[in-house]
Specification:
Chain lengths: 357, 357, 357, 357
C-alpha cells in the first residue's frame, strides 16, 4: 500500500524540472516520486519530440522504479505542466481512507506485438500485479494510466523485412492501435470485459471500453509505463478520486456532475485526467464535425483542444491532463474521466468514498 | 424596420445551399434572405477557399442586396452550417417587440486603407446608417457582424511598388489588422469609444473594445459586409437577443450566466455568435498557453476549437457561430458574445428586452 | 482524331478563369477547350476546397463534354496555373505528326467500388474507348490523366450503415486507394499489366505500375475524369510528347535525360506532368526521410514540394504540373513523367516521334 | 590554425549520438570534435523541440568549447544527420592547403538586443576574433555558421513588462530578426558591407547580404554559437571549400556550376551548406508562389523542401545541410551556398584553392 500526494506544477518547457524545487520545498525528495505525469507542448503525434525531451530531462532525476508518462499536445487553453505523484504513507488519523498509487512497467513490447494480443496481455498482467500490490479491489481503482510505444517507420520496415505485417503500416495509426491494446488490457484486468470481448474489440469492435483507462503512445519508450490510482481504507490522506465518462466531446454535463459530487463531498478538485477523441462516426449529436477530414490538423489535436477547454473551465485553470485518442477509453466519441480531489480532514464524518458516477 | 426570423441549417460542404429548400419549406423565398452567416470548414486563415466557395455558391442564389458573411474554421466540435436571416415583418400581436436586422456594404476598401483609419471610418459610417435605417438606438443593437478583406501577397507587392507601406507585410497578420479596424469602427458607431481612443487602439493599444462587434476577414471580398442585429419594440416576433463578454477563452461562467438570463426569460437559445482569441499575453489566468508559439497551427484555430467546445456545450449542439481573432471584440484574450433566443408568445407578460449582461 | 494545342496560364486564385481571355486572344473559343488541367493552391488532401472552387468556376464556362482535372497543392516553388488543351485539327503540312487528345468520363463510381475492382475496370474501359477514338495504338499514348473521387466521412458512414466496409475508413487514405485503382485501370488499358497482376496490385502489391499514369483524387467529383494524350501521324502540329519515370523523389537525372531528348529533337519543353510520392520504405537511396512520420504535414505535400523544385528547375519556371500520391504511377517512391514539347516545323526532316525513354 | 576533418553521419532521431562510435572508429575521440552541425526532424520553427533534444543529447558528450548548431526541418527528401567537424592538424605533405575551422560563442544576447544592433555587433566581434584565431584573411572564409536565439512568449512579455518593445512581438517573426542580425554581423565582419549599410539592412532593407553567412535560430540557446570555416595554406588536408549563391529557390544552375568547379578540381562533394527562403516578393521568375499565403505550413518549411530536393540531387543523397530563412544570406529569395569537398592528394599539382564563384 502506498499513500500518495499530488503536486501539479506548470512548466516553462518540456525539459523544465523545476517542479523538483517545489517538491523539496514541500519536504519531499526526488526519491519519493512514484510517477511524473505531464502534458508537454508537442503535437501529441508521431514526431512529438517534446515527450522525448521531457523524458530525457526527468528520468535521470528520479528513482529507477519511478515511471514517466508524458502526453503531448496542449492545444487551445491547455497549460503545459507536470503532476508528481509522491509516495507518502504518513498516517493522518483524521482521514479514514486516502489515495494510493502503484507504478510499474511491462516487458519490452516487440514491434510485432504492438497493437495486438501480446501488448494487451502484457498490460493486463502488469495492471493486475499492481492492483494486488496496492491491496485494493479492482472496484477501488479509479485510473489506470498507460504510456505505450508506437511503430516507427523503422519498426514497420524491419517487420516487413522479416515477413511480418505490422498492426498498422502507418505510424500515426499505430498510435491508435497501441492505445487500444493497452486500454483493453486495462479493461480486462479490472474485470470490465472478458477475453472474447477484448479480442473482438482489438479486431475492430468499438463496443467495449473502460472509463478508468487512459492510454497515450509515444516514440520515446519501448515498454508500457503503468500507473494505477485508487482509494484505499488502509491509507489516510486527504486525497480522493472518482471516475466517470464523457459520452461525447462536449459532454460538459458529465464533468459538472462529477464536480457536483466533489462539492457534495466537501472537496476541491485537484486534477482531472480526461481522454478526448473525435467521434469516429463523423458526427456528434447528429451534426457533422470535420475533425476526421482535416488534412492539416490531426483529429487528436482537435479533440484535445475541445475537451481541454471544457476541462479547464471546470477545474478553473488550464493545467489539466487531457490526452487525445480515446480508443476503448470511454465509449466511441467520448472519453474516460478521473477526478482527483482533496477533502478537509473530518474524521468523525467519513468522507464520500471514491465513487463511480 | 425589418423584423427577422433565423434559420440555422447544417451543411454538407461549403457549397451546400440546401438551406434554400428548408427556407421554402418554411414559406419563404430566397428574396427574403437578408444575410447568410455561415461557418465553413476551412482553416479560417489566408488560404481558406472554403469561404470563397461558399460565397460563390450563395451569392447568385440570393438577392443583390443580401450580404454573406462566411467565417472559416470549424475546429473541434464545431459543425459547418449557415444561419439565414430572413426578413419577415409579420405582426404578431402576442409579442411587444422582436429581432430586427439591417445589412449593407461599405465602399471598396483600397489596400492602402486596410487596417487603417479609412477602413475604420467606412465601417463606422455604414453601421451608423444601418442603425438609423432600423430606427433603433445604439443601445438596442446586440450584434454588428462584419466580414472584411485582407491583404494578399499581390496587394502587398502592389502597394510597395507604388511606394506605400501596407498596414502589415504579412498576409495572416493583415487579417488581424482588418478585424481591428472593423471592430473599432463598430465601437465608434455604437458610441462605445471616442475618435481618439479608436485611433490609439488602431495604433496598437488593446484597451478599447466592443462586446457587440464580430469581425472576420477573408480574401473573398474587397468591401466590408455589415449586418446589424437589434431588438425593436416596433417589431413583434418571438426572437430576442442579448450580448455579453467572455473575459478569457474558457470563461464558461459568462456563457452560463447568459443562458440563465435566457432561461429566466422563458427563452430557448437559438444561436450564439462568439469571438475567440488566444490571450496575447501568452497566459490565461496566470498559466502559460502555447497557442502563440505553435508554428504548426495558427492561434486562431486553437482559439476557435477551445471556445467552440464551450459554446456548443451551452447551446447543446455544434452548429454555433464561433469566429477567431477577437481584436477589440471583447477584451484581450476574451471575446464578444451575442445570444439570439426565442420566447413563447405571452403578450400580457412582456418578455425581457434584449439585455446587457 | 483530335489534334490539340496547349495553353499554360498562371492563375491569381483557384477561381481565376482569365485564361479564357488568353484563349480568345489566340483565336480560340471556350468551346474548343477539351480539358482544363490545373494546379490549385490548396493542401491537395481531403479538405482541399481550392479544387472544388476551380471546378465551380470553370465548368460553367466550358463545353459540356470538356473535362476538368484540378490537382491541389502548389507547395514550394510551384506556381498555380491552368493548362488548357484546345482542340485544333488544323493541318500544318510542315509537321508529319502531332499531339492528340481525347477526354471522357466514367460512370459514377459508387462509394463501395472506390479503390476497388469496380473503379479500376471503369477507368480501364473509359481509357480503352478513348484510345480507340484517337485512332492510335496504346504505344503512342504518353499520358493518361485521371481525376477520381475519394471517400468522405459521409460516404464511409453511409457504407457502414449498409453493412459494407469501405476500401478505407480513413478519408486521406481513401485518396490513395482511389489513385491506385485508377492507375491500375490505366496500366491494364495500355496493356502494361494483366488482370491478375492488376488485382494483386490492388490488394497491396507495389510491383506493378505505369509510367504514363497520373491520377489525383478529390471530393469535388463522383465520376473519374479522364484525359488521354498521345502522338499521332494523322495529326500535324508542332507538339510532341514523351514519357519516362523518376525512380525516386530526387531523380533529377531522369528529368535531365528527358530534357536532353527534347533538345536533341530541336524542341522546347512546354509542360511536364510529373507524379511525386514519398518512398513508402521510409528511406531514399538508403537514407531515412521523415515524410511519413511528420504528423503536421501530409507526405503528399512534402513530396510535391521536393519534386516540384526539380521539375521547375528543368522547365525554368514554376508553372509545372506536379501531382502528389504516385501509387502505381511509376515505381514505389518514384513517379511517372510526361513531357510535352514543341518543335519547329521542319517538314523535310521528320521530327523525333514521341519517344519512350 | 586548426585543420579539420568532416564526418557526416545519418541519425535515427534527434537524440542519436551514435556518430560518436563512427568517430572513434576513425581514430578520433569526442574531445576532437569542434562542432556538431546537424539537421533534425522538427518543424524548424518556434516550437521545434527536436533541436533542444539534440543539444541535450550532444552537449554532455563533447568538450566544453565545442559548439552545436542544430537546424530543424528535414522536409521533403532531406535526411536527418549530423556533421562533425573534427580538429586534426596532421600534416599531409601531399596537400598544400586544407580546410580549417574555429568555433566560439557570443556573450548572452539579452532579449532586448535580439534582432538588433547589439546582436549584430556581438556576432561581428566573435566572427572577427575567430578569423584572427585561424590566421586567414576574410577572403579565405567560405562559411560562417551561426545558431542564434529567438524570442519566446515569455521573453516578449518580460520585455513589455519592463516597458521595452521587442524587435518583434511574434515569436516566429523573431526567428527571422535574429537570423538577420546574425547575418549582417557576419557580413560586417567579413568586410562585405559597412556599418551604415548594415544598420539600414537591419531596419528592413533587403539590399545587403553575405553569400557565406548561414544563420538559424532556436529556443534552445541564449548565446550565438559561431563556426567559421575557411581554407588555409598553413593546413594540409584533403578538404577544400567554395561558396556561391542561389539567386532563387530553384537556381539549380548555381549548384551545378559549383559542382562543375569541384569536378574540375578533381574533387568529390562532401557536403553542401545551403540557405533557403521563399521569395519575399511573392513571385519567382515572375510567377506567383504560395509559400507566404499558406496558413497551414510556414514558408520556411516550404523553402527547405524545395531547395533540399535540388541540393540532394546535386550531392546524390539527402544528408545535406539545408536551412530555412535566408535573410541577408544570399539575395532576397535566394540563399548562400557553401560546398565542402575532398580532393585527392596530388602534391605536385596544386589543387584549386577555395574559389569564389
Amino acid at each position: 500500500m502506498t499513500g500518495v500526494r499530488l503536486l501539479t506544477v506548470p512548466t516553462t518547457g518540456p525539459d523544465d524540472t523545476d517542479a523538483l524545487d517545489t517538491l523539496s520545498g514541500n519536504g519531499y525528495s526526488a526519491d519519493d516520486v512514484l510517477a511524473v505525469v505531464g502534458k508537454t507542448e508537442g503535437n501529441g503525434c508521431v514526431n512529438d519530440f517534446s515527450r522525448t525531451l521531457a523524458a530525457a530531462a526527468w528520468e535521470p532525476r528520479i528513482g529507477p522504479d519511478a515511471v514517466t508518462v508524458f502526453s503531448g499536445g496542449t492545444e487551445g487553453v491547455l497549460a503545459p505542466h507536470v503532476n508528481l505523484l509522491i509516495a507518502d504513507d504518513t498516517h493522518d488519523p483524521r482521514h479514514d481512507r486516502g489515495l494510493v498509487a502503484a507504478v510499474g512497467e511491462t516487458p519490452v513490447i516487440p514491434p510485432e506485438d504492438l497493437g495486438r494480443v501480446g501488448q494487451m496481455e502484457a498490460v493486463r498482467d502488469t495492471v493486475a500485479k499492481l492492483v494486488v500490490d496496492l491491496g485494493i479491489s479492482a472496484d477501488d481503482v479509479h485510473l489506470v494510466l498507460v504510456k505505450c510505444p508506437l511503430l516507427t517507420s523503422t519498426d514497420i520496415t524491419g517487420l516487413r523485412d522479416r515477413g511480418i505485417e505490422p498492426a498498422s503500416g502507418d505510424t500515426y495509426e499505430s498510435m491508435a492501435r497501441s492505445r487500444a491494446a493497452s486500454s483493453l488490457g486495462i479493461a480486462l484486468s479490472l474485470g470490465e470485459i472478458d477475453e472474447d470481448t477484448a479480442r473482438a474489440a482489438l479486431a475492430g469492435q468499438r463496443t467495449a471500453w473502460s472509463n478508468r483507462a487512459s492510454a497515450s503512445s509515444g516514440a520515446e519508450l519501448n515498454t508500457c509505463h503503468v500507473l494505477v490510482l485508487g482509494v484505499s481504507t488502509e491509507a489516510s490522506n486527504p486525497l480522493r478520486a472518482l471516475h466517470t465518462e464523457m459520452t461525447d466531446a462536449y459532454d460538459l454535463a458529465a464533468l459538472q456532475k462529477a464536480a457536483d459530487v466533489v462539492a457534495q463531498d466537501g472537496g476541491r478538485i485537484r486534477q482531472l485526467f480526461v481522454k478526448a477523441e473525435s467521434d469516429p462516426s463523423g458526427t456528434i449529436r447528429g451534426l457533422r464535425h470535420t475533425m476526421l477530414t482535416d488534412s492539416d490538423i490531426n483529429a487528436t489535436r482537435h479533440a484535445r483542444a475541445a475537451v481541454g477547454a471544457l476541462t479547464a473551465a471546470v477545474k478553473g485553470d488550464g493545467a489539466v491532463y487531457v490526452s487525445g485518442g480515446a480508443e476503448h477509453q470511454g465509449r466511441p466519441g467520448g472519453g474516460s474521466v478521473t477526478v482527483v480531489y482533496e477533502v478537509d480532514p473530518v474524521p468523525t464524518a467519513p468522507s464520500n468514498r471514491g465513487a463511480d458516477l
